[in-house]
Amino acid sequence: MSPASPGGRPGPAGPERQARPIRLGPRSIGALALVSAVGVVAFGWPLIASGGSGLSAHAQDAPWLFAALLPLLLAVVVATIADVGLDAKAIAMLGVLAAAGAALRPLGAGTAGIEPMFFLMVLSGRVLGPGFGFVLGAVSMFASALLTGGVGPWMPFQMLSMGWVCMGAGLLPGPDTIRGRRELWLLAAYGAVSSVLYGTVMNLQGWPYLGGLATGVSFVPGDPVGDNLGRFIAYCLATSLGWDLPRAVVTVLLSLALGPAVLKALRRATRRAAFEAQVTFEGPKA
């Protein structure tokens, strides 16, 4: 009920607390932290594989090891989160949003970095929270890979990266207080940064194994971290920045143009689903 004003009439209601399909518990947080830590190593091992480390000696085996390990860890995370609180209503919403994201991805077909699914993933993560967002991002990339035939050793890395993007959107400040243009610009800015970072970390997945590159941008196993990092930055500037920046621009434009309608629809659906409503059972009436 709204607080009463001095004149006796109901005053304006305060910001409504955003209901979330999943409230992360200790087990879910632990599973997310574990898969994220392994993911950081899976992406970043070329930069920490110094000459004296065992990683540099297994430069050809590492991608296959991580490609086999990440799906198992992602399955553990999804199963843990589902066991904690992914009910039938949340699964239904997950299916609808994952299908929408998978359908949006082929529209740009990766042409010049135009990938409209990013704005939907960011807005969904904002409304539905970090736990649901991580699962949504991973499942959406899996579904889109099946839809487009993009199944390969890179797919688990794409699932993890998109899970991070959606989870980060759910961790943005002010989920219950920031609304209107401020929220749109916050989401647009986050979408732009995450679009570029997504491309950057995905470059790390494939960069060490590309043959025929110039020595100034290729990975050299055993070289110092600073040298390989410099080559990686040069590689990103020379190859993928032309895709990452258009992806960021498209995400910003779609977030500002369609954001109000999409956020309103997602919040309405969340309220109608009553994810956090307490279920009570009454005995038979006398």
Distance between the termini: 32 Å
H/E element sequence: HHHHHHHHHH
Shape: globular
How much is the average pLDDT?
Answer: 78
Helix and strand content put the structural class at mainly alpha
> Poorly predicted ranges (pLDDT <50, ≥5 residues)?
1-14, 52-58
Give the percentage of residues in beta strands: under 5%
Q: What's the quaternary structure here? A: single chain
Number of helices: 10
Helices and strands, with pairings:
Layout: H1 26-48, H2 54-57, H3 62-85, H4 88-108, H5 117-128, H6 130-148, H7 155-170, H8 180-206, H9 225-239, H10 241-273
Notes on the protein architecture:
There is one protein chain. The protein is mainly alpha-helical and 286 residues long. The protein has 10 helices and no strands. The longest helix is centred in the C-terminal third of the chain and has 33 residues. The radius of gyration is 22 Å and the shape is globular. The two termini are 32 Å apart.
List keywords for this structure.
mainly alpha, globular, 10 helices, single chain, 286 residues, disordered N terminus
Short structural summary:
With 286 residues, the chain is mostly helical. The chain has helices spanning 26-48, 54-57, 62-85, 88-108, 117-128, 130-148, 155-170, 180-206, 225-239, 241-273. Mean pLDDT is 78; it is low at 1-14 and 52-58.
